[in-house]
Design brief:
The structure is a single chain. The chain has about 475 residues and is mainly β. The protein is built from 1 helix and 33 strands. It has a single domain, classed as Regulator of chromosome condensation 1/beta-lactamase-inhibitor protein II (Methylamine Dehydrogenase, Chain H, 7 Propeller), CATH 2.130.10. The longest helix is centred in the first third of the chain and has 8 residues.
């Protein structure tokens, strides 16, 4: 069928996602290395509680979530699909405490495109909320959830890690099994079919193969095994599976990367980033905006080492829609790729095809980073939290809706000058927090765009890519 023969398409009004990635044991590392603040005597008899410390951050399409000390979860940004978990669909310009998760011993938070997940300390309970189409919430239906709900199908399985893509999710159990659910049009669930799954299902391909961690892109998935092997499956048109071609895979297939073992992996929208045991950074897949960091704007069908960071030991990676970030063991942060909204954080809005260092006030070292769709969030070793990039929906958490192209501190989490630290609390949640709006109500009918010229629209969006890549 030619482009002119295509009827108007139903396209989600905002198919945005993020894929923050760090190792499953990252929380223990973060907690053990964060400095402990000293309480100051303010000359009163009142006991002054130490400020909350941000332990983890995760960035979604246009929303953000943080886990703080004291078992506090906060969210902010776009709330249109209930992804903030406050029982409504309002945006929040400032971090707001998620009351529904009080006293739930949450130790991990993960953002998908327009949905969010949290995991309890025991690993026995995983909560999900937000946009529910394709069954991405794992509750057995397509309903939205405006407040966190436990995924009953995962109860008792001892979940170690959860990864969220655009419309599908993956999890790893403490027994090293892998489960998947949600959208499966291109085989991203790894089940050997293209049928969506409304409930978590075990990926049989990994039977007897202990998996260490997983990551999810828009419509592709990756996994790292305990012995350091890398697997890819799902949508592969840009080479984002690393298998040397542009074919989809319905089942996980092993990726070859020199002779190194792989320890970390992250997915962007259509690209993949991984780290070897020697700290070397590799990337492959979609490269049109320089998001692979190889000094060009080309796709790469197999993993290729990022040469400009060859003298660095990479300890953490994260991928956005069209940009990437890498953190070194010495606390340096590097970014590259699409930079229209300043999401790389280097003080300009120019795309960059090679990694550039992001500078922070007082040369603070970075402890954690997470890429959203068009924004980025980082936690420094001193405990401060910074954000930059797109801010139109309040996803930067600074009370404004303007973009920033350099790291800007989120005052609500500020440790420097923490006497003014204040975090709002959401109102009591409704009993169900469920929205039953149908999928058809959530789409907008738009004319199908025809490719021309450079392939970019006026807003920098693709016009020559599959329909699922066209953003409005």
């Amino acid at each position: 069928m030619s482009m002119t023969e295509l009827a108007p398409k139903k396209i989600k009004r905002k198919m945005e996602s993020c894929y923050p990635t760090f190792g499953p044991s990252a929380l223990n590392s973060i907690v053990s290395t964060l400095p402990v603040p000293e309480m100051e005597d303010e000359g009163t008899s009142e006991v002054v509680a130490p400020p909350r410390r941000v332990l983890l951050v995760s960035a979604g399409a246009s929303h953000s979530v943080a886990l703080l000390s004291g078992n506090v979860v906060c969210s902010w940004g776009q709330g249109e699909d209930g992804q903030l978990g406050h029982g409504d669909t309002d945006d929040r310009l400032l971090p707001t405490k998620l009351s529904a998760l009080d006293d739930q011993d949450i130790i991990s938070v993960t953002c998908g495109a327009d949905h969010t997940m949290a995991r309890s300390e025991s690993g026995r309970t995983v909560y999900s909320w937000g946009w529910g189409d394709f069954g991405r919430l794992g509750h057995g239906d397509h309903n939205d959830m405006l407040i966190p709900h436990p995924i009953r199908a995962l109860e008792g399985l001892m979940i170690q890690q959860v990864a969220c893509g655009d419309s599908h999710c993956l999890s790893v159990t403490m027994d090293k099994l892998v489960l998947s659910w949600g959208h499966n049009k291109n085989g991203e669930l790894g089940l050997g079919t293209t049928e969506d799954s409304l409930l978590p299902q075990k990926i049989q391909k990994f039977e007897g193969i202990p998996v260490k961690m997983v990551a999810a892109g828009a419509e592709h998935s990756v996994a790292v095994t305990e012995d350091g092997n890398l697997y890819g499956w799902g949508w592969g048109r840009y080479g984002n599976l690393g298998l040397g071609d542009r074919n989809d895979r319905l089942l996980p297939q092993k990726v070859t990367i020199d002779d190194y073992k792989i320890t970390l992996v992250a997915c962007g929208w259509r690209h993949t980033i991984c780290v070897s045991s020697s700290g070397g950074l590799y990337s492959y897949g979609w490269g049109k905006y320089g998001q692979l960091g190889h000094g060009d704007f080309e796709d790469h069908l197999v993993p290729r080492k990022v040469e400009t960071l060859i003298d660095k030991f990479i300890s953490q990676v994260s991928g956005g829609w069209r940009h990437s970030m890498a953190l070194t063991s010495s606390g340096q942060l590097f970014g590259w790729g699409w930079n229209k909204f300043g999401q790389i954080g280097v003080g300009n809005n120019l795309d960059c095809w090679s990694p550039m260092q992001v500078n922070f006030p007082y040369d603070q070292k970075v402890h954690q980073v997470s890429c959203g769709w068009r924004h980025t969030i980082a936690v420094t070793e001193s405990g401060n939290v910074y954000s930059w990039g797109r801010g139109a929906n309040g996803q930067l958490g600074n009370g404004e809706i303007k973009d920033r192209n350099v790291p800007t501190i989120i005052e609500a989490f500020s440790v420097d000058g923490s006497s003014g630290q204040y975090i709002e609390t959401s109102k009591p949640c409704p009993s169900s927090g469920k929205s039953s709006s149908s999928i058809s109500d959530r789409y907008a009918i738009v004319p199908h765009e025809t490719a021309s010229g450079s392939g970019r629209g006026d807003d920098g969006y693709e016009t020559s890519v599959p329909e699922s890549d066209v953003m409005i």
